[in-house]
C-alpha cells in the first residue's frame, strides 16, 4: 500500500511538472512574439545616445538616448492579453561619455540637437538688472544672469520674484577664498531654490577654470559675445544651441525687445543654461 501511494505521488509530480513546463513553453512563445513585434517598432521609438565631445579646451554636451523597455512593455501587454502599441514603455539611456564630471574645460554651446538658445547677461549695475528683467518678463522670455555679489544682496527680493530666470554668482579668478564663495553661492541658491551654478568668462582664464573646477562648477565661455548691434548680430549668427552673451549697455537694451521678437519668429526657444546643456 505504501508503494502504491509512493507511485501515485510520483505520478502526480510528473504530471504537474509536464503542466508547468508546458505553460512555460507557451509563455515563452508568447513573449517571443511580443518581442518580435516590438523589434519592428524600434525605429519609431528609439534614439541613440550621443557621447559628449571632450576636446583640449572645450566640451560639448552629449544627448540621452531612448530605448524600448522590453520587460515593462511585454509585462503590460501580457496583462492586457495581446500586443497593443499604446502599451509600449520606454527608458532613457545615458551617454557613455558625459560632461557631468568634467570641470576643467569650457562649455561654449549645447549639443545642437534642439532649436534652443540661451541668452546670458553679465550684470555690473543694479539698474541694468531691473531694466532687462522688465523687458524679458513683458515678452514672456527667460535668460541667464551673472551677478556681482553686491547686487545679489541689494536685489534679494527681485531675485526671489524671478525664479523663472537663472541667476549665477559672477566669480572672479582673483577670488581665492573658496569658503567665502561657497557661502555666497549658498545664499544665492536659497533665493533661487536652484542649486545649479556656473562660472563665466569671455576669454581663456586658466585660474578661473581651476577655481571653478575645485568648486565642481562648469565654466561658461559664450559662443558669441555681443557688445553692440544686437539685432543685426542675432540675425546673422542665430543657430541651434548657441550661448549668446549680451552686453547690458543701453544700446543693447534698446534693441532687446526686437531681438526677442526675431528669435521667436525664427522658431527658436529661449531656455536656461541648465536646459540647454542637459544631456
3D architecture notes:
By secondary structure, this protein is of the alpha/beta class. It has two domains: 2-93, no CATH class; 106-276, Glycoside hydrolase/deacetylase (TIM Barrel, Alpha-Beta Barrel). It is built from eleven helices and 13 strands. Strands 6, 7, 8, 11, 12 and 13 form a six-stranded parallel β-sheet that branches. The protein is elongated and about 95 Å long. The termini are far apart. The mean pLDDT is 90.
Helix content: 40-55%
What's the Cα radius of gyration?
28 Å
Identify the CATH class of the largest domain: Alpha Beta
How many beta-strand runs?
13
Number of domains: 2
The biggest beta sheet reads:
6 strands, parallel
Mean pLDDT: 90
Shape: elongated
Total DSSP helices = 11
User: pLDDT under 50 segments (min length 5)?
Assistant: none
Q: Fill in the CATH topology of the largest domain.
A: TIM Barrel
| Share of β-strand residues | 15-25%
Amino acid at each position: 500500500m505504501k508503494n502504491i501511494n509512493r507511485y501515485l505521488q510520483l505520478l502526480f509530480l510528473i504530471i504537474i511538472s509536464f503542466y508547468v513546463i508546458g505553460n512555460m513553453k507557451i509563455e515563452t512563445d508568447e513573449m517571443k512574439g511580443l518581442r518580435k513585434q516590438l523589434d519592428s517598432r524600434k525605429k519609431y521609438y528609439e534614439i541613440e545616445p550621443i557621447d559628449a565631445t571632450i576636446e583640449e579646451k572645450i566640451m560639448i554636451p552629449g544627448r540621452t538616448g531612448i530605448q524600448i523597455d522590453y520587460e515593462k512593455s511585454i509585462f503590460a501587454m501580457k496583462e492586457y492579453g495581446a500586443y497593443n502599441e499604446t502599451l509600449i514603455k520606454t527608458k532613457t539611456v545615458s551617454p557613455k561619455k558625459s560632461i557631468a564630471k568634467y570641470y576643467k574645460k569650457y562649455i561654449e554651446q549645447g549639443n545642437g540637437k534642439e532649436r534652443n538658445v540661451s541668452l546670458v547677461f553679465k550684470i555690473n549695475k543694479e539698474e541694468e538688472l531691473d531694466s532687462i528683467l522688465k523687458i524679458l518678463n513683458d515678452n514672456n522670455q527667460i535668460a541667464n544672469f551673472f551677478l556681482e555679489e553686491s547686487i545679489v544682496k541689494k536685489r534679494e527680493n527681485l531675485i526671489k520674484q524671478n525664479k523663472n530666470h537663472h541667476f549665477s554668482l559672477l566669480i572672479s579668478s582673483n577670488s581665492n577664498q573658496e569658503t567665502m564663495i561657497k557661502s555666497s553661492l549658498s545664499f544665492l541658491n536659497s533665493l533661487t531654490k536652484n542649486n545649479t551654478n556656473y562660472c563665466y568668462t569671455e576669454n581663456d582664464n586658466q585660474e578661473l577654470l581651476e577655481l571653478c573646477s575645485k568648486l565642481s562648477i562648469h565654466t561658461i565661455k559664450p559662443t558669441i559675445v555681443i557688445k553692440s548691434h544686437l539685432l543685426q548680430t542675432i540675425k546673422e549668427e542665430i543657430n541651434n544651441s548657441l550661448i549668446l552673451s549680451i552686453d547690458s549697455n543701453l544700446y543693447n537694451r534698446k534693441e532687446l525687445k526686437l531681438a526677442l521678437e526675431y528669435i521667436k519668429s525664427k522658431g527658436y526657444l529661449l531656455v536656461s543654461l541648465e536646459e540647454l546643456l542637459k544631456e
